[in-house]
Q: What sequence folds into this?
């Protein structure tokens, strides 16, 4: 029950005197506290009156901060007042700037660009330079070279984890309409390592496995088949066709165009090529459908649209098809072998999360 | 070209066939390529020094050719074909005294070649699926091989009929099933006969050929993924291992405990090497980076982006920072400064003898005070 707001000298004398004197000291301290609190109250009243009385933009005494008030309600009130003051000042500043801008007209300085996390992104040294020969050679001879040289056509096998529920099944069916030349098969509890050689013998080029958890798709394993890399993604925000507002009719059999946005680093390039090789290559676009893989902050957003050019500059789009987001968890060299395979990239949360402005893709 | 290659203290082989040299003091990486036309056949699988003076590098490629690179001239001087690509890629290259070359391929054929002849002088079969062959740094004619379902075998090249030491597999497990074995990398421990190996089943084994026991003397498990690379630091009793997930750990061989992990690598480790004298370790892997960690504080010292996946790394014996001359000049003046400090401290000590009584007096006073307080409380 010792009260701590008493100055230091009083404390020492309090300790050295005998117990009998302590209760007297306490009472003295309480009185002192009463005075002290009284003093505090008056101080606060003074401070409350100050902003009310003072002109807008008056500063508090420099040693005072809102966090020093011990009473929660009063502290909250003071903080609210502080915020309102700040907001007022900000609005006034904005109005002033706007007036100046209008006054200057054409000569006004250009608008300042606000800072966003994408703006402040730490420069990644693995960003691919388009003229780099070594990277061009590396990409030209990697596992996708057969596709990009026009030698093979994609053939995709879509399956799920064992015993899928309704949502996942519908998701797979819709994916099969979006990706041309895709076949959905029921996974009869077969091991993926045994499925892979069978697919290779039947000339499939991709194996897509949607993993399900609690009746909702949550993971995706995308394996490029002859000997290609295997990517494991986390799937979130899956929206099926009937959940979409203002959607168009179902997609037709035409091959869609592919748009890959913002895959800048070397890892991003590999993943981008992985997605691009899912769809057949045909420079003469037929059917105005487009599949977009947009990478932002290491999340890949998939959207499927139908577009129509109204004139040279205006496009109308309607969204069809499912939409989902992916986050890369690992990229493994070679076909699916999670135990003994060699990983080219693994998501390590504690190592990578240290800087908010650093992204891998 | 020669100047750049003389600066490089770290050499790496990549999957695209390019030999890369890195100079850490200048923070620059240089590509040395044989022909202007690159191809995946030239993927570098094995690297070793051609001579003890480290003026020549031997680069073994997938198609069975071994190229000699001279660090003085900065160019490839020779190319020789040492076997068919059908046999598999090189799993080990070593140089014997007398300009003989030892090569080992994946199908298990270990050959010793001399410069003059195009046929192997000695040939032996080390089993199938050999993953690695290493040469003992002390006894140059001893080599060790190991692979998938192919245990550790130590061979003496002068008596190639039978291995000197064949390791026995571990005891059957608790279900009486045969334990699978997959030796990925090995190293000879200096100053003793022991050999340490790392396996694809995340175990590290130490074998002692001088003891009658053919099973491992020490077994350590680390992680849940296959260990792909191994290296022994200059300070003994430890081993650095890396696995396919990019986890690198320093293990203590006395008891078999993990001393610490080196962080930073995100891809599978393909090559690890500790510097012969400095406490640093260089690691390279599938994430296309060369990383140099200090072994004492386990912190990342250097990180270099090299655009292709890297297969093997080789360190020069000289100082990594390449400031060998500069360090020498910095040495003597530092010593002199320390000498001056000693003189200062000598003079100081004479003054400090007197105030020594004060702390003693203070202690007495404090004792008295504490006694008084105790009395008061009572």
A:
């Amino acid at each position: 029950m010792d009260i701590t707001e008493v100055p230091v000298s009083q404390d020492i004398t309090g300790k050295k005197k005998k117990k009998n004197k302590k209760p007297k000291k306490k009472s003295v301290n309480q009185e002192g506290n009463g005075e002290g609190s009284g003093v505090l109250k008056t101080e606060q009243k003074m401070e409350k009156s100050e902003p009310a009385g003072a002109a807008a933009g008056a500063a508090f005494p420099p040693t005072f901060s809102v966090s020093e008030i011990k009473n929660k309600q009063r502290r909250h009130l003071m903080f609210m007042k502080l915020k309102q003051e700040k907001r007022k000042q900000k609005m006034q500043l904005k109005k002033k700037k706007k007036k100046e801008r209008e006054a200057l007209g054409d000569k006004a300085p250009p608008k300042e660009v606000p800072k966003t996390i994408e703006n402040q992104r730490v420069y990644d040294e693995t960003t691919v330079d388009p003229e780099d020969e070594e990277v061009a050679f590396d990409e030209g001879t990697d596992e996708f070279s057969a596709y990009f040289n026009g030698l093979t056509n994609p053939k995709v096998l879509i399956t799920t984890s064992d015993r899928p529920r309704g949502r996942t099944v519908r998701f797979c069916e819709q994916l099969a309409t979006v990706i041309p030349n895709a076949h959905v098969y029921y996974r009869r509890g077969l091991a993926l390592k045994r499925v892979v050689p069978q697919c290779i013998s039947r000339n499939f080029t991709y194996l897509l496995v949607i993993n399900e958890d609690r009746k909702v798709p949550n993971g995706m394993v995308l394996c490029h088949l002859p000997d290609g890399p295997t990517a494991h993604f986390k799937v979130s925000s899956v929206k099926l066709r009937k959940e979409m507002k203002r959607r168009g009719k179902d997609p037709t059999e035409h091959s869609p165009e592919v748009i890959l946005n913002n895959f800048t680093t070397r890892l991003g390039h590999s993943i981008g090529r992985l997605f691009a090789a899912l769809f057949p290559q045909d420079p003469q676009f037929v059917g105005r459908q487009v599949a977009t893989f947009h990478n932002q902050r290491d999340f890949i957003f998939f959207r499927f649209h139908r577009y129509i050019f109204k004139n040279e500059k205006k496009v109308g789009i309607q969204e069809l098809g499912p939409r989902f987001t992916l986050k890369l968890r690992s990229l493994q060299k070679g076909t699916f072998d999670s135990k003994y395979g060699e990983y080219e990239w693994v998501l390590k949360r504690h190592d990578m999360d240290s800087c908010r402005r650093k992204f891998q893709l | 070209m020669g100047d750049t290659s003389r600066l490089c203290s770290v050499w790496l082989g990549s999957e695209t066939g390019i030999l890369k040299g890195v100079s850490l003091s200048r923070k620059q990486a240089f590509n040395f390529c044989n022909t202007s036309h690159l191809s995946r056949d030239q993927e570098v699988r094995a690297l070793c020094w051609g001579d003890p003076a480290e003026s020549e590098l031997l680069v073994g490629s997938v198609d069975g050719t071994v190229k000699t690179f001279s660090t003085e001239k900065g160019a490839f001087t020779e190319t020789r074909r040492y076997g068919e690509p059908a046999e598999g890629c090189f799993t080990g290259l070593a140089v014997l005294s007398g300009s003989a070359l030892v090569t080992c391929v994946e199908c298990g054929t270990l050959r010793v070649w001399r410069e003059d002849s195009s046929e192997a002088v000695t040939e032996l079969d080390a089993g199938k699926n050999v993953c690695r062959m290493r040469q003992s740094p002390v006894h140059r004619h001893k080599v060790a091989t190991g692979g998938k379902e192919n245990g550790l075998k130590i061979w003496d090249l002068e008596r190639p009929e039978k291995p000197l030491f064949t390791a026995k597999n571990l005891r059957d497990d608790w279900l009486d099933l045969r334990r699978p074995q997959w030796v990925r990398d090995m190293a000879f421990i200096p100053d003793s006969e022991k050999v340490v190996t790392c396996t694809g089943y995340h175990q590290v084994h130490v074998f002692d050929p001088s003891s009658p026991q053919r099973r491992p003397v020490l077994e350590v498990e680390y992680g849940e993924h296959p260990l792909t690379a191994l290296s022994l630091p200059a300070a003994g009793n430890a081993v650095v291992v890396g696995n396919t997930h990019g986890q690198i750990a320093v293990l203590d061989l006395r008891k078999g405990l993990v001393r610490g992990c080196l962080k930073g690598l995100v891809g599978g480790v393909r090559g690890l090497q500790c510097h012969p004298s400095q406490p640093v370790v260089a690691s390279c892997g599938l994430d296309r980076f060369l990383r140099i960690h200090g072994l004492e504080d386990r912190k990342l010292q250097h990180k270099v982006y090299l655009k292709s996946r890297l297969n093997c790394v080789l360190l020069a014996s000289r100082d990594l920072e390449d400031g060998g001359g500069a360090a020498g000049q910095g040495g003597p003046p530092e010593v002199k400064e320390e000498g001056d400090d000693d003189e200062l401290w000598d003079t100081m000590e004479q003054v400090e003898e007197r105030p020594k009584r004060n702390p003693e007096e203070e202690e007495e006073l404090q004792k008295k005070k504490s006694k008084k307080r105790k009395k008061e409380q009572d």
Summary: The longest strand of chain B covers residues 75-81. Chain B touches chain A through 27 residues (CB under 8 Å). Chain B is about 15% helix and 40% strand. The longest helix of chain B spans residues 324-352.
